Amino acid sequence: MGPAAVSVIVLRPQAVTLQSDLPGRTSPLQISDVRPQINGIIQARLFKEGSNVKAGQGLYRIDPAPYQATLDQATAQLANARAALVTARLKAERYADLVKINAVSRQDADDAQAAFGEAAAVVQQQQAAVESARINLNYTRITAPISGHIGTSAFTVGAPVSYTHLEE
What we know:
By secondary structure, the chain is of the alpha+beta class. The chain contains two helices and six strands.
């Protein structure tokens, strides 16, 4: 039979990538539950489930109409309170001058000054009401608090949502 045929391989150095598949688990650095801060009806879902979102990106829009109406009402009440403040200030100033020459009683001047103070307080209350209404209107746009991968939607378009304060 003769000698057996064999193949020859010449060894040469070369780069080899080492790869290992190991079992493991990962956990996110940040997790955030997205919940509404007001009550309302979901008008739109602004993301695709399973996509990546950026912090500040819109996720949901709640019907803003009732919150816009509340802001408009508070703004009108503030304008009314400011007008009443001007009237009260002018009357208090007039009475302060008239009391010096005994044209009005001291009690009337004191009452006018007190009414001016009350009108100023009402203006502050109405300014706070406007700010509160503006905050609630801004809450009709629910945004992503962090960047990352978003899972399945907890809410659908047309669904009523409500704010519930969770005690910790």
